[in-house]
Task: structure prediction
Amino acid sequence: MKKLFTIVLCCLCAQITLLSQIIYSGRAISSEDKTPIPLANIVLLAQDSSFIAGGVTDELGRYSITTEQGKVPQWIRATCIGYEDLLRPISRYPREGAELILEVQTNQLQDVTVRAKRKAFKLKDGAFVANVSAVPSLRNSGSIDNLLNRIPFVQGSDGSYSVLGTGGEATLYLDGQRVQDASILKHLRSQDIASVEVINTPGAQYKASTKSVIKIHTIKKQNMTSLSASQYALLQHRLSTYTGVNVAHSSARTYWTLNAGYSHTAIASGNTDYYALRNAGGSLSETSSTLDMTNRSDFFMGGLSLNISPAKETNIGFVSNLKVSAVKFDVASEGLIHKESGIVRLNTPYTSQIDSRPYKSTSSLYYNGKIGTTSVNVTDEILLGSATKSSVYDEVGTSASVKTLGTQRYAMNSLMLSFQTPIKGVKLGYGAEVTMSFNRNELQKTEQGIATDVSGSTVKNGQTLLSSFFDVRAQWLGLAWYAGLRYEYESSSYTQGGVLMARQKPSPHFLSPSISLSYSGEDLRATLSYRKSLNRPAYSSLNNFTLIENQYVYQQGNPFLLNETNDALQLLGTYKTLSFSASYNYIRNTATTALARHETKDDVVLKRVISIPSYSTLSLGLEWSDSFGPYSPSIEVGFQKQLLKYSGLTFDRPMLELSTSHYVELGKGWSVNADASYSSRRHHLFNEYSAQWSYSLMLSKEVGNFTFDLSLQNLFLDNKHYKTRRMAGIFAQEIEAQDFSGVGLNVSYRIHSLKAAYRNKKASSEGQRF
Result:
């Protein structure tokens, strides 16, 4: 009884102590561009300047300091390298939500601004975080493409990015909400971004098909209305433009955003294709064509989001985006030439037109809150879409004509519930997810003067995916470790022409383990991890449709494709100004296109989607980056090699990548970005690609709320790329003259960008299969 009384008395004392504490919170921001200032020291002082309490701001510039009842601060002081010290009476600021504006500390030397160095990257919970807003060379990168390619371990373009060594495309998140269509990122500029988080080994809460995760966090302002607009024009052989606008409003408990954009893309390219094979009679069959292709596409994008915070750490909201497109390809060939043993059997020009009109809508409803100490996340994600695609193939000198009309309709709904509970320094995560999807493809055709294997049919795919997960996180000294296990059960069906088809299918059960160990020290930050992932085939490949490229080259799908699995072992890290990476992937049942002979036509090459039994890849990377006042250089070296054997052939030519970037602040709002890269001749699956050079030069000027970016890219470079394949006794070569050089001008205006700060951090990734 005495012990019980003592325990109760201690609890009451602890409760009284907690109730007597007062919290002071807010943000530290830069006076120059209102970006958050991380790692700033915030100190509360008494009237005689004696210390009461203090803290350090996080990556978004936020601080929260607790004081005891009776100790009333009179002054607040904020200090950070590169900024003037701030000392003000605390009465000037509200107790919660204060904004401390720090003046940039500059030394003028021949009109060049020199600033102190600040840490660009850090390791947080096993993820590498790039502090974009605090590093000039990142903050002034320009487009999202330019920015992400400056982040260590990340590469890609046009909304498709990957993390080095993860064996697939990364899943993108914007302010916690998964990006279903990367075109919505076009309205963002690097000046809008607070930080970028790179997760090379996604935890068990992510779907097993998630290879890696890139989270983009935008700069957030409270209690204001903001506006940003951007106009971009790129002149290559033709003119492409983009116009976008974003409006946002934030109050104490509610914020919303509205964005809209229109894009016109015009790309010209030239192709020369050549195929050679020996037919059953021993004669050499050769088919070649030279063609010019023009892509003219128009896209309209729009989005709306709303977040309501009825209580502290509680958020309810929705996000909705849509994209309507009109895509046109016009192909004109000088001649389709077919030879048998050197004798020309056919020589005729031909034309081909492809007209596609896709529509895509994504919506997400979410709730984030707490039950006691347990964090709760609920997300319902909805995807709807359709597309019509017509194709016409006509030979000028013959009566050969083929017309196809394809339609696609799809829908997906994914409901996820997840929890995280802290128990004695360990965080336990657990949850479940159910995803239902439906896809319908229909193909109709007409032929004249030519007999092909193009067959009209209707294909329906349905899938129900059930999953659950459990994970554990803990920290000890400078080490952080994570272990998780995800279970997925897949039930699917395939119907063609109204008949339920039996398919070769793997086990519906799949276990995806994830393990990582991270160390974060003063100079060295590294993470070692293993994950087993799963990739289901794209619905567009799961059919028996045979499409005509020309009358001697066909394309065919495959309803019997298997699920791909990938065992990935990775090491990523930074040491002072160096970033390093190493990874090994063992991959089974990858879906890719192989060359084969047509079963009944000796002179026809069939491009058929198949599953490769297994192969492995090895990747190594090293990057050095530093800052010397106004000058920030970086150099990156990468090595990649695949170990692939198929039908007695070896496809293992390695690739060496070299890239460098240089950023210079010229003063008075002027800056220069220069980038150059080289990739050697290499194999990717069955294809061998030629070496490639690339460069860009961007001159930027800031005038008030306006930013002007003038860019030059790949001028005077040979734009021809070679792709060859040798398999099944067939030699194929494609020479593509890409429209990848040009001059671009971007004019952007922003009062300040704002995006929702509280959204669900985990969502489905099934949408990418459509």
User: Anything to note?
Assistant: Helices lie at 2-19, 136-139, 144-148.
